[in-house]
Amino acid sequence: MSDAGAVDPKICQIVRQSLPQIESAFGVRVLRATEAGPRGYGAGSLDTPHDVQFAYVRKADWYLKLTPGAEKISLPVSPGLNMTGSDIRGVLRSAQSGDFEALLSVAQGDAYFEQPEGWSECTGLIGPANIRAFDFVRLRDRAVTQVRSWGFGTDQDFAEFFDAAYCVLRARWRADHDDSPPEDVGSLTEGLEEDLRADIHKLLNEKREKAETAIMPPLPRIQIFMDSEMQRLADVSTPAPTGVASEQFDQIFSSLVRSFG
C-alpha cells in the first residue's frame, strides 16, 4: 500500500463502531476489515469513498451449506464509507481448489479491524509463492484495465493516471523480485533511467499539490515506459498455486465456527 492509503484513525473508529450493528443485522461475526478501494492504492481523491471489505463467519453451523457470496452492506454506516462483506466459507472454499484471489483480496490492504486469533489461521493457508503470483496478476490487470479505458486523445486526471502508473511499477517489482514491493515510489523506480525517474517523481509531487481531478500534462516518457512495460509483463508467467487439503480446510473452518460462529 502507498503512504496515501495509510490507515485513517477516524475510519478505524467508524468501522469498529459499526461492526456490532452489522454483526447483529446480518447474523455474522467479522474477522477482518480492510481498505479495498482506490484509496488503498494511493489513487483516491478527497471525494472518493472509503471502500471497506470485511471477512465474516455466519452465526450458523457451516455444514448447513449456506450460500456464500459477497454482500453489499447498505446500513447507514457513515457518509463517504462503503462496506462490503465476504463469507469466509466461500473464500476458503475457493482457496481449497487453488484459487486464492478472494482470500488475498481480504488479506491484503490497510487493516481497520482484525481478530488475529481467527484470521491468522486463514492467512496461514497462503504461501509466499501464491501471494506473489496473485498480487502480480492483480496489479498488472488493474493497470491494463485502467489504460484500456482511456479513449484515444482523451485527457487523464492525476488520480487515474497515477493509479495505473503505480500498479505498473508494483507489478514490475513483483515480476522481478521475490520480496514484497516497497510502498514508496523512490524504491519502485530504482534502476530506471534518471530522466524517467524524474518525470515519475514530478507526477507524484504534482498529484500531491493539485486537485486529483485536475488534468495532468503530457508526460511522454512515462507513457512510453508504461506501454512497453505492460507488453513485457503480459508475457510473464507465474507458478500455478496449489490447493488446500480438505482436512486442513475442515479443521480451520470448524475452529472458526466454534470461536466466532
From TrEMBL:
It holds the Pfam family RlaP. This is Nucleotidyltransferase. It comes from Acetobacter nitrogenifigens DSM 23921 = NBRC 105050.
